[in-house]
Amino acid sequence: MTRVISVFLPMWPVDRLQRQAGDCAPSVDAPLILAGRDGRRRVVIAAGPTAHALGLRAGMSISKAQALVPGLRIEPADPQADLESLERLALWVMQRFSPIVAVDPPDGIVIETTGTDHLHGGEPAMLEALIGRLSLSGITARAAMADSWGAAHALARFAADPVRRTEPGATEMALAPLPIEALRLPPATTEALRLLGFTRIGELAHQPRAPLTRRFGPELCRRLDQALGILAKPIAPLRPEGLIEIRRNFADSIAARETIARYIGKLVPRLCLELEAKGVGARRLDLICIRSDNQIEAVRVGLAAPQRDPKHLTRLFCDRIETIAPGYGIETMTLTATLTEPLAQKQADSLLEPAQPDLSGLIDRLVNRVGQGGVYRIAPVASDVPERSTRRIPALAEPTGAGWPGHWPRPARLLPRPEPIETMALLPDHPPNWIKWRGIRHRVLRADGPERIFGEWWKRDAELSAVRDYFRIENEAGERFWIFRAGDGEDATTGSHRWFLHGFFG
């Protein structure tokens, strides 16, 4: 089933202007509008957040806006620059999220995510990552995911706060409460529908189509069918200049898995020759299959390091063939190196020097199966607090900075958060005689400690006097636990003196 994300950028002209100005941009708290012309009238094209809060709206005359808000900052609108910047933003999204991305002017981007959401940890994680990246870049954005472009477009503008995701097959239910303006109809059609008593999409969905078509023309039913997913609206993906791309058209459509695999095996070597000629390796590859019914199937492959090895790349794509739904057949296959990096020729390993193991192939297969967030390595962080002493880094990245803090052994596994336990111990420095965790009682045979860890007072005032006393204990079955007492066992200001289980030793 096709899945589409629509990204709505309600403040795009203002956001673009602020980003372009950089450090020289005036404060965002100052009211700002962009001015343009509607015939002979000089009108507001876009209003910043502060100006919008003061009642200024697009379409309002400039003279009225100045009368309402003295000292208003007015800048000329530049629709062409807005569109060019929107295309650059869409290309950035294409490189990082999905191969099928197009602009939805004047204030949106549309993304088909079929076959790529698993690389980002699933659909909810993909939506959150997309909106998070845009917000960090100073762009106001809302996004919605649905089964069709029309539905996602409507939900992004009338229901997302800041994201909205509909389950597959639930499009009609999600659209029903939205106003009829969400269908992108001409204003005259919307006004006529409201005069007839139609205010919500759900009120139109089950009306007889013939009377609606006779009265309003084919546009109303076409927009309604596009939103409900009955009528397909294909997305024409952006393709920047200089993109390394190999295309194959078929006189007769192909559908068998073996045939698809055979042609992948022909496209990949040709692409690798292009990569080698330019001295680069691929970090992200997209296989786009255009079906005979004009639907698009896409497969994205991410790579941990620049690659142009035909056998390795072919295997990665063939592992994902089952995600391609050929329908009545595939007419065109396009293989694209969406993201590349320089890759120089490498000297072959000498017999006198043992070769270092290359894990990139294994990591690529795992990442493309379980997603980018599922494969990583742990790097140390200069912090004595256990839950802050590690961080995740890419699987092939080398850890930087200091080694593991402290001299005491650390458990092989930490719990996501310390869990409270029941104990009996002699305060302040003795380990417990027994612990009870998750309803199971463990008698302590051996213990080592305490290891005192102080709070990081330079980060939070609440940790100014906080301490923890950690113990390594072993029960009668040989299981070893890492437990701690919050506080020093004497002064109540150092902690609650409750006991917690924090980890396990191997």
Describe the structure.
With 506 residues, this protein is α+β, with helices and mostly antiparallel strands. The protein is 28% helix and 30% strand. It has 14 helices and 21 strands. It has a seven-stranded antiparallel sheet, with no helix packed on it. Strands 5-6-1-7-8 form a five-stranded mixed sheet. Strands 9-12-10-11 form a four-stranded antiparallel sheet, with helices on one face. Helix 12 (257-278) runs antiparallel to helix 13. The protein is globular and about 85 Å long.
Mean pLDDT across all residues, rounded? 88
Categorize the overall geometry: globular
The class by helix and strand makeup works out as alpha+beta
What is the gyration radius calculated from CA atoms? Answer: 30 Å
Report on the biggest sheet. 7 strands, antiparallel
Number of helices: 14
Strands, helices and their partners?
Layout: E1 4-8, H1 12-21, E2 32-38, E3 41-47, H2 49-53, H3 62-68, E4 73-76, H4 79-96, E5 100-104, E6 108-112, H5 123-136, E7 142-146, H6 149-158, E8 163-165, H7 171-175, H8 187-195, H9 201-205, H10 209-216, H11 218-228, E9 244-254, H12 257-278, E10 280-291, E11 296-307, H13 310-318, E12 330-342, H14 360-370, E13 377-380, E14 390-393, E15 413-420, E16 422-425, E17 432-437, E18 440-454, E19 467-475, E20 480-486, E21 499-504
Parallel strand pairs: 2-4, 7-8
Antiparallel strand pairs: 1-6, 1-7, 2-3, 5-6, 9-12, 10-11, 10-12, 13-14, 15-21, 16-17, 17-18, 18-19, 19-20, 20-21
Helix pairs in contact: 6-11, 10-11, 12-13
